[in-house]
Amino acid sequence: MSHIFAHRGSSGTYPENTMLAFKKAEKTGCYGLEFDVHMTKDLEVVVIHDETVNRTTNGRGAVKDMTLEELKKLSIKSGWLRKEKIPSLDDVLEWAQGNEMIINIELKNDKVFYKGLEELVVQKVAKYQLEGRIIYSTFNHESVKILKKITTCEVAALYSRKGINPVLLAQSLNADAIHANYRVMTPQLMRDCQRHGIPVRLYTLNRPPLIQKWMNEGLSGVITDYPDLAQKFKDKKE
């Protein structure tokens, strides 16, 4: 069965990685939520995709150089009257206690190395007692190894370059799953993963023909900007 994950929330329709996008994703009935985290100057964890706030907010600067309080003062760029803010990981996890969605936390530490991010995120998940609903993922393969040592939650290795064998990647890192850009995955590679019991989730599947193709191949997870569309497609298919 292919599960639907909302990529940065319902980010095709609402401002990405905001509480609004997450709450709208929940209303679609999708299986899971995917979002990104970075560490702040004062060692807090915030939900934002980029290393800087430039693209998505009315501010400028690197997340690592700003405190949580400074980041909270910024507004997300959008056409909505209500000004969305950058959520902290605590904000999202506290909200998640009120639903049953699977939460995929992507640690964005492949371009900026945040020392101790893995431990901090795992501690926050434990604080809200959500360990049974968490998937960790990261492009930083050293972080995959760290996470495997400090948590019993599922840990997925992310990759987006062609020429990588996902089975060998998962085995070399002791990863539980593979999350890959759909452009670098082939049906044969996915079947190889399936034979070795390695779940594969692909991003970012937004068009029905792609969703159908990979669902037909037995994809474990569809990571999409349009969970409402993907969920309706999945319901019709079943």
UniProtKB/TrEMBL annotation:
Q: Where is the GP-PDE domain?
A: 2-234
InterPro entries attached to this UniProt entry: GP_PDE_dom, PLC-like_Pdiesterase_TIM-brl
Question: Which Pfam families did the record assign?
Answer: GDPD
- Highest taxon, organism lineage: Bacteria
Q: Which PROSITE patterns match?
A: GP_PDE (PS51704)
What organism does this protein naturally occur in?
A: Jeotgalibacillus terrae
Please give the name of this protein. Answer: Glycerophosphodiester phosphodiesterase
Database matches in CDD domains:
GDPD_TtGDE_like
Segments passing through the bilayer: none
